[in-house]
Every structure is written in structure tokens, then in C-alpha cells.
Amino acid sequence: MNIALIAHDKKKQTIINFALAYKHVLEKHQLFATGTTGKLITEETGLAIHRFLSGPLGGDQQIGAMIANNEMDMVIFFRDPLTAQPHEPDVSALIRLCDVHQIPLATNISSAEIFIHGLEHGSLDWRKIMKGKKEY
């Protein structure tokens, strides 16, 4: 599966810790990330990650393009809901694209762990069935 990893600044350490804890699951998949998040995760875990631009510079939109082209299977986006983000319209667009294209989106560690455990046990195979089908 293609999995995007994104984190706002105050959540970067959380996503690094998450990637360390679930490295054994994540390493079996193709990983994508916004620039800084991907760099930090790779440095700490050694995971191979395709890095896009930093989120505010267009990385969120690059991941959004993959979603729109049915090339992304899951998004893990640790958001900071208590801090205003200068690129909030991009964040909102990314979330909307996940909803439109039926892409699982975890915005906190609790939901991300449910998705990871699903991956670990093969419970998210429905994505393979959905590829190529459009509901709208």
C-alpha cells in the first residue's frame, strides 16, 4: 500500500515515535511524506520514504494529487488542532480529497494505531478492491 506520513511541527516527534514503534509494519509498504517530516522519520528510523516538498510549500498538494489520481491508499496526518496553520486551506483540501476518494485518514495517534493494526492483520485489503472504482 502507498501510505502518506504528514505532521505539523508540534506533532513531528509524535510521528517519529509512531514510525519507530511500527517500523516493522511500515517497512512493508511504500511510504511518502512531506519534506521535513520525511527527513526526520528517515533519520530516526532508516525507513525509505519518498519525500515531497514541505507542506506549506506544496507538499500537501503533491500528496493530494496522488490521492486524486488513485495512487495513495492511506494518509496518516498528525495535525496540531490548537495552532493556526498558514497553509490551512491546503490541509482542508487534503482532508476533503481523502473523503471524496475514500482514502483512510488518521489525524491522531489513536486512529493511526487502528489503521496500522489493520495493515498488520491484513484487514485493509478492501483498498485493493476499491482501486480503479469511483463512487462519485
TrEMBL record:
<comment type="similarity">
    <text>Belongs to the methylglyoxal synthase family.</text>
</comment>
<dbReference type="InterPro" id="IPR004363">
    <property type="entry name" value="Methylgl_synth"/>
</dbReference>
<feature type="domain" description="MGS-like">
    <location>
        <begin position="1"/>
        <end position="136"/>
    </location>
</feature>
<dbReference type="InterPro" id="IPR018148">
    <property type="entry name" value="Methylglyoxal_synth_AS"/>
</dbReference>
<feature type="binding site">
    <location>
        <begin position="34"/>
        <end position="37"/>
    </location>
    <ligand>
        <name>substrate</name>
    </ligand>
</feature>
<dbReference type="GO" id="GO:0019242">
    <property type="term" value="P:methylglyoxal biosynthetic process"/>
</dbReference>
<comment type="function">
    <text>Catalyzes the formation of methylglyoxal from dihydroxyacetone phosphate.</text>
</comment>
<feature type="binding site">
    <location>
        <position position="87"/>
    </location>
    <ligand>
        <name>substrate</name>
    </ligand>
</feature>
<feature type="binding site">
    <location>
        <position position="12"/>
    </location>
    <ligand>
        <name>substrate</name>
    </ligand>
</feature>
<dbReference type="InterPro" id="IPR036914">
    <property type="entry name" value="MGS-like_dom_sf"/>
</dbReference>
<feature type="binding site">
    <location>
        <position position="8"/>
    </location>
    <ligand>
        <name>substrate</name>
    </ligand>
</feature>
<dbReference type="Pfam" id="PF02142">
    <property type="entry name" value="MGS"/>
</dbReference>
<feature type="binding site">
    <location>
        <begin position="54"/>
        <end position="55"/>
    </location>
    <ligand>
        <name>substrate</name>
    </ligand>
</feature>
<dbReference type="GO" id="GO:0008929">
    <property type="term" value="F:methylglyoxal synthase activity"/>
</dbReference>
<keyword id="KW-0456">Lyase</keyword>
<dbReference type="GO" id="GO:0005829">
    <property type="term" value="C:cytosol"/>
</dbReference>
<dbReference type="InterPro" id="IPR011607">
    <property type="entry name" value="MGS-like_dom"/>
</dbReference>
<feature type="active site" description="Proton donor/acceptor">
    <location>
        <position position="60"/>
    </location>
</feature>
<protein>
    <recommendedName>
        <fullName>Methylglyoxal synthase</fullName>
        <ecNumber>4.2.3.3</ecNumber>
    </recommendedName>
</protein>
